[in-house]
Each structure stands twice: as structure tokens, then as C-alpha cells.
């Protein structure tokens, strides 16, 4: 069944999710269809409990499972490979078929540059106002900008797929809300959509919050690595994000070794590495203006006698938060 036995944790996660959804979704719809009707507060609390349980137990792990399985198919059977993007994803707030086009094709091909609608280059990346504009593009305007991206890059087959997937998702939501139950549909699908798109927007913002404005085309200067954090154990080594952009097809179990083997390239590229924090931690520290605290997690990869002071690290981090100048954007295309 699996192409690579190292992906057994992904299969186990998928089976756990099936078990949870098989109980949770019918339960929420059942409570809302119960006669005589249960109190509105009871039904809303049940819906909230369902969403919180899914977020705590599965949201991050599912998103990263979807992520790596989209880059590197895990099943021999192509229908099984499509299940995550087309069947699982809507239960975690991602419209059918959107993720692979948005992330694997657009984000990685365009590499956080101009045609990437999730690019962070144009923003002052410690500004809440700029993040608000970014969230609007990432979470709301995606419905228009993804098809537009396909048109601009002549990806007509993908345009048909993405429009079909989005319309199928909307049609399913309308059908369930109209003919089954509105409140249950809101809790099982609409609220998870808002949560997922907001979390992914802040996640991508945080992953690409540091971009060297003088060298934005380099994979070693448009993101950073997070090491020695327990989050890597539950997100398939997602913290090695420079490694991922340098080699997106690399198996997730090989990332730590690749990082070690290519340490000199990281040093030469001025790459950032942090220890003991993950992307959301980094994003929160930056947005709350705590670069002084983040600097203490910085890992110096070069010779010990060349290690920068905390003040120098803060200065570098602050410089990498500025919008990339137009001249550098053109150079990076």
C-alpha cells in the first residue's frame, strides 16, 4: 500500500482521523437534528467542543501530513493519494483540491516571490496592519487569486480542477446547510475553514517572516530552520524549512541529516536557525516586538570565535523584516 514504510506514521494518523470523524461529525449533526430540539447553547457548546478537539488533536498534524504527502505521494494507488486533498481536507477547513495547487505548485515554484499570492516579500513583517492585509489575500481573496494565478501562468488544467473543487465545496456546504442542518454545518465545516485559513496564513507568514532584502532569491535567505523542538516530532520535521525549500522532494525523515550535511551552505548563505522554538513561537515573538527574546534562541553555525552578540543578532533580524525592494524582487524572478 505505502511506497515507503517510513510513512507508516502518516497512515496511522489518517486512520485515527477517520475514527474521530466517524464519531464526531454524526454526533454534531445528530445533536442538532434531535427532536424535541436541544437548547441552542447545548448545541453550540457541542460544536465548539468538536472544533477544539479536532484542532488540538489533529489540525497541525493533518496539515503537515497533507503537506508532505502533496510533495511526495505516499501510496501506490493514485486514488488513495487523492484522498487527503479531496476527501479529508474539507473536514479540516481546506476546500477540495486547493492545497496542492496553492502550496506545491504556486508557493514552491514561485518561491515566495511576486507570482506567489502567499508571498510575504511586500510586507513589513512585524506589523499587525500588514498581517491583516496578508490574511485578507491568503484567506479570503484566495477564491479569486488562485484561478487568476492559473491564468497568468497558463495552468489551464489546474484552473479547471481548482474551480471545480471550490464549487464542489461550496455546493456541499449549501446542500448540507439547506437540507440537513445549518448549525451543524457551520460547526463541522465553516468554522474549521476560518480556523484553518487563519492558522495557515499566520503559519506561512511566520515561516517567511525573515527575508534578506538584499538576497531574497536565495533559499537560505527567505526562511529559517527550527531545530531541537518537540514540535518537529509531530509535524514531520516541518521545522527544517530552509532544507524543505532547498529540496522539496526530500523525505521528511532525512531532513535533519541533510541540514547537518549542508551546514556550510547555510553558513555561506547567512541562514537563520533557531533552537527550542517553532514557527508560531517565532511569529508571536516577532509580532509582539520581542526580538530580544528570540535572539536568545539563535543558533550560530560558524566558528565559535565569530559568534555575533545578541545586539547584532537583533539588528540582523530587524533588517530581515523589511519589505523587499522592487529591484530585488525583479532580480529574484
TrEMBL record:
| Domain of life (superkingdom) | Eukaryota
Record domain Fatty acid desaturase: where: 52-264
GO BP terms, alphabetized: lipid metabolic process
Please give the start and end residues of each transmembrane region.
Answer: 12-34, 40-58, 158-178, 184-205
Q: Which terms are listed as keywords in the entry?
A: Membrane, Transmembrane, Transmembrane helix
Q: By what name is this protein known?
A: Fatty acid desaturase domain-containing protein
